[in-house]
Amino acid sequence: MTVTDTPASAPATAAIRIERMNKWYGAFHVLRDIDLTVRTGERIVIAGPSGSGKSTLIRCINRLEEHQSGRIVVDGTELTNDLRNIDKVRSEVGMVFQHFNLFPHLTVLENCTLAPIWVRRTPRREAEESAMHFLRQVRIPDQAHKYPGQLSGGQQQRVAIARSLCMRPRIMLFDEPTSALDPEMIKEVLDTMIELAEGGMTMLCVTHEMGFAQAVADRVIFMDQGQIVEENVPEAFFNNPKSERTRLFLSQIL
Ligand code: ADP
Ligand code: MG
Fold first, then answer.
1. Can you tell me which atom of ligand 1 is nearest the CA of 26?
2. Number of alpha carbons in the 13 Å side-chain half-sphere of residue 74
3. Is 25 in the pocket of ligand 1 (CB under 6 A)?
4. Using H for helix, E for strand and C for coil, what is the string for 120-185?
5. What three-state secondary structure class fits 192?
6. Which residues belong to any copy of the ABC transporter domain (predicted)?
7. Do 50 and 63 touch, CB atoms closer than 8 A?
8. Which residues of the chain have pLDDT under 50?
């Protein structure tokens, strides 16, 4: 969507709206009163110590996890137990995990065309053309006929990103996409993510790559013990953190 599509008076669309959302794992209160609005085209980085609920939060956004109270509205669709809503949201939200999660017995191209063919009913030929388009975008079209096991970790993660893009998502969620990679492969994945951000994709990224946060994030959100403790533009977040917990965290990772 270009700027001219929206009348100047219209409020910016919320891609994701979370209001007073709570989640428990059994008796364990893992997410507490989460309020978060992500505008269309916005890039958010979520940081915070291990166990603070970052993965759980983004998994709630495409209903890989269920919340128990409050609201989550994704692109206008409220997440409830209605399976049609869940399907709709999953088709609009792509997710990239730490451990790639590619199908090892399928080629790169087949990994990318599987869901478009079987879920979207896209004709094979068209799905393959689209897959090649996105494999070129992540700069590995030459690997299309290899199996994931023949690729480096960085290449596999770029396939995972291309595979998500093949479903034409409106929002992309990343859960520590570089933390399983050897250092020399981190940059190629981050570069792919930066290009995606520059293309206007709405992105929510759990990552501790603070260079990435500073390069592309509109806001950084810091979580601790199931709460959003602080959110700010990167510059202020890094140079002038408001809370003691953020300060402590930054002193450990920077
Ligand atoms: P983060 O991604 O910030 O490391 P998680 O969202 O993975 O945090 O986990 C938050 C807390 O919830 C942790 O204490 C974790 O042990 C717990 N947890 C995560 N998944 C489950 C689960 N399926 N069942 C019970 N507890 C869980
Ligand atoms: Mg996690």
1. 25
2. 26
3. yes
4. CCCCHHHHHHHHHHHHHHCCCHHHCCCCHHHCCHHHHHHHHHHHHHCCCCCEEEEECCCCCCCHHH
5. helix
6. 16-250
7. no
8. 1-10
The confidence score (pLDDT) of residue 11 equals: 52
CA–CA separation, 101 vs 98, rounded Å? 8
For the chain, how many residues are written? 254
Q: How far is the CA of 48 from the centre of ligand 1 (A)?
A: 13
Question: What residues pair up with 222 in beta bridges, in sequence order?
Answer: 47, 230
Q: Per the structure block, which two tokens stand in for 4?
A: 């001219």
Residue 185, amino acid: M
Closest ligand to 54 CA?
A: 1
Task: Report the predicted TM-score, pTM, of the whole model to 2 decimal places.
Answer: 0.93
- Separation of alpha carbons 74 and 38, rounded Å: 9
The reported pLDDT for the residue numbered 95 is 96
Per-residue pLDDT, 253: 84
Among protein residues, the one with the nearest Cα to ligand 1's atom 7 is 55
- pLDDT given for residue 79 in this prediction: 93
Cα(28) to centroid of ligand 1, in Å? Answer: 9
Q: Which strand ranges, in their side-by-side order, compose the sheet holding 171-175?
A: 93-96, 171-175, 202-206, 43-47, 219-224, 227-232
**Could you tell me whether strands 14-25 and 171-175 are parallel, antiparallel, or unpaired per DSSP bridges?**
unpaired
Q: Which tokens go with 93?
A: 């939200």
Distance 11 CA to ligand 1 centre (A): 35
186: its two tokens: 């981190």
Q: How far apart are the first and last CA of the chain?
A: 37
